[in-house]
Structure formats: C-alpha cells, structure tokens
Amino acid sequence: MQYDALLIRYDEIAIKGRNRGWFESLLVNNIRKALDSKATVRTYRGRIVIEIGEKSNFEEVKKQVSFIPGIAGFSPVIRLPLDASMETIESTALLLADRALELGLTVFRVSCTRPNKQYPVKSPDVQKNIAAHVLRNRDKMFTVSMKQFQWNLEIEIANKDIFLFMERVKGIGGLPVGSAGEVLTLLSGGLDSPVASFLTMRRGAVVHYISFYSPPFTGEESMQKLEDLALHLKKFQGRSTRLHILPFMDIQLLIKERCFENYRTVLFRRLMFRLAERIADKYGYKALVTGESLSQVASQTIENITCINDAVDHLPVIRPLITNEKNETIVIARNIETYEISIRPAVDSCTAFMPKNPVIRGTSAKAAQEEAKLHPLLEELMTKSIENEKVINI
Ligand code: ATP
Ligand code: MG
User: Fold this and answer.
1) Residue 24 in contact with residue 230, Cβ under 8 Å?
2) What is the rounded CA–CA span in Å between residue 208 and residue 394?
C-alpha cells in the first residue's frame, strides 16, 4: 500500500478572523520552502495537502513536515477523486485494514466527516457501509468498537477529493514563522537559550542570535557549538539566520579590574543586554530573547532579573522559560535535539570570570553606581565591540 499525500492540519482557533488567509498562505509558503521541490503543496479551505510524487521520499517529507511551526498535525492519506465509486472507497479501506493487520491492530471503528455537504451519501451511511465491507471481507479478523478501538479508519469527504487515513501524527504546533517579526536571542551555548529560541520561533518569530566571545577563554569549540546550534535551529525556522558574535573580553576585564566582585555577573549581563539592544536596533530586530528562568541560578533571582532588565532601554525581553522547571526544558531540548549540542563541553564567557560570591539580590542603583566606575572608557569599549562584530550568515 502506498500513501499518496499528507493532509496537513493547523490550529484553526489560532488563526481565526481577518488574518486567516494571510496565515494560510504564509504557512503554505513555508512548507513549499522547506520541501524545496520534493513535493507539490496544494490548498483547500482549511486544508493543506502535500502530494507525494513517485520521486519524493515519503519518510523524509514526513520528518520535514514535523519540524514546521504552524502545523498542528498531519495524516498520511490515500486520496481518491470525489466521484470515486463506493466500491473504490471500499477496496481502498481494505488496503488500510490490511496495513492495520500487519501492525497487529484488530479492533476498529470508521469515522467519516463530510465537509462537502453536496456529497450525496451521509457520513453515518458511509461509516456503516465501509465497516460492514471490512468485516465481510476479512472474515473474523476484525471487530468494531466505537469506544475502545485500536485504530480508526477515517474518511474525509472534501470539496474535490476523498481522503482515507488511519494515522494522526502530531506536529509542533504554534504559528507559521514570519507571522511575528524578527527577534534576537542571547545565545550562550547552554541548554536554555536554544530552547527559548525554538519556543519563540514556534510563535511565528524569525530568530537571529547574538553571543559574546572572550578569547582565549572561549575558544574554537564554543564558536563551533553556537554555529551548530543556530544551524540546527534553522530547520524549524526554515529561513536563513544571522549569528552575531561580539568581542566581550575588554569589557569583562575592565569590570573585573574596577568593580565590586560580587556584582560582576550582573554587570556582565547588563552590558550584554545593552550591546544586544544596539545590535537589534541596527538590524531592525523587535525584541530580545533569553533562556532565563526564575531563581534557577544566582543571576536569575527576581531582583537580579530586574536589575539586568533595567539596562535595556526600549525593547521587550521575551523569556519563554521564565517559569519552567529545568527538567521541562531538558525534555524540550531532547525533543528538538539541541540537547546533544548544548552538553558538549565549552567555556562560556561568563564562567571564565565567575565571582566567588555573586550578589543574590542586586539593585539597579548599586549596579549603576558600579558602572559609573567604568566611564568614560566603557562607551568606547562598547562601540569597539559593535565595530568588531562578526556576522555569520547561516
Ligand atoms: P543557558 O543554558 O542558556 O546558558 P543558563 O541557565 O546557563 O542559560 P545563564 O548562564 O545565567 O543561564 O544565562 C542566562 C541567559 O543569558 C542565557 O539563557 C542567555 O540568553 C544569556 N547569556 C548568558 N551568557 C551568554 C553569552 N555568553 N552570550 C550570549 N548570551 C548569554
Ligand atoms: Mg549559561
């Protein structure tokens, strides 16, 4: 048995209203881009169908589709023309029944939907017909149960086609990328910021990355890790991304030399945020994204998050993981396969200068007082860091 298409479902509630058409065509374009020319994508009202040709690799297409934000789920389907005879529908149903047998699934039900109200046979009659045909032709192999079925033979009678299927695969959900503007993730190479990036992408944003680099403490392996993460995450976003690398060493050394040691991490973060905001403004990114999670580490107490956030002038900071348990984040990292990249050992620009007793409840007033010790050199170093920005197009 050969499936000939994937029937795509998307969350209709999320895209209700006047923007529906726009969302739909964005999603269709994203699918087309992701599949290149491996398959043909067609649309119906509320339905997107990916036709799997002779030459396309079905498993590969399935895998790619499961990465695309905005797709709530999909089914591999056998497609018949709307004018197919009941005999044709019946014999197609038998192909699915035989597939179920191969899988050891015997208790079934038939569920028919008929969005096309012009179709002359009503759904309950189709269901009865098809169930009876399967039972009759596969003697004693199947039983029907409406409630405790092991497989569901589904039939959808659409405007131009009839679809038969037995599998519903979950997609990653969310909204099509491109529906929410471009944002900039502060990417550290740890577990959290890649997950935060993925979750933001899944809400429709195009994500770019910024990371702070302090050679010789952060070496080639850290850079490689960042590039690998950005490249891997590109799969979900389906469009090119920029990785901005900013030198940070001079600023760190100045802070180390002049400021109260306990405030060091908080000050590093404040400056990262400021530099990130400048880069965002330069490229037109509309928000910053971080992997911060409330009280996970000393720099992420509510006081320190506030103190770090106060360094941002006007952009919103999106923190998708703010209330996540670490375990929840790890589950997502494993699912999206950033976990293996994130756990590769590499030195972070901040760990290289970790203070012995980082402040737990920092204040903006005290942070500003510490920063005052850096003037006027700091402004010069920030400008230099921006001037020496390295952009990697991925
Ligand atoms: P992650 O797992 O993302 O590294 P974390 O739990 O280790 O997060 P921190 O190291 O305190 O937390 O960092 C908090 C957030 O600050 C990170 O999620 C990231 O968004 C940002 N960040 C930290 N270090 C860097 C860096 N060197 N370059 C860019 N962003 C950074
Ligand atoms: Mg970290």
Assistant:
1) no
2) 10
Q: Name the residue type at position 57.
A: N
Q: Distance of alpha carbon 94 from its chain centroid, rounded?
A: 37
CA of 218 to the centre of ligand 1 (A): 14
Q: What percent of the chain has pLDDT over 90?
A: 80
Report residue 288 as tokens.
């910053």
Q: Which ligand is nearest to the CA of 186?
A: 1
DSSP H or E stretch at residue 392: strand 390-393
- The span from the CA of 129 to the CA of 134, in Å, is 9
Summarize pLDDT for 95-128 with one digit per residue, the tens: 999 999 999 999 999 999 999 999 999 999 999 9
CB 30, CB 64: distance < 8 Å? no
CB proximity list for 226: less than 8 A, separation 6 or greater: 187, 189, 209, 211, 243, 245
What is the average pLDDT across 267-283? 98
Using a 6 Å CB cutoff, which residues line ligand 1?
186-188, 190-193, 211-212, 272, 290-292, 296-297, 299-300, 348-350
Phi/psi at 285 (5° precision): -75, 145
Six token digits for residue 215 = 């050679």
Q: Domains (ranges, CATH) in the chain?
A: 5-169 (3.30.2130.30), 182-393 (3.40.50.620)
Which tokens in the block code for residue 166?
């037995």
Nearest CA to ligand 1 atom 31: 188
- The reported pTM is 0.91
Write down the pLDDT at residue 289: 98
Tell me how far apart the alpha carbons of residues 350 and 213 are, in angstroms, rounded to a whole number.
9
Q: Could you give the CA distance from residue 373 to residue 368 in angstroms, rounded to a whole number?
A: 9
Under DSSP, the state recorded for 218 is S
Nearest alpha carbon, ligand 1 atom 12: 292
> DSSP labels for 88-117?
HHHHHHHHHHHHHHHTT--EEEEEEE-S-T
| H-only helix segments in 238-342 | 249-258, 264-283, 302-309, 326-335, 339-342
Name residue, tokens 């920029």: 242
Q: Tell me which residue has tokens 């403490």.
A: 217
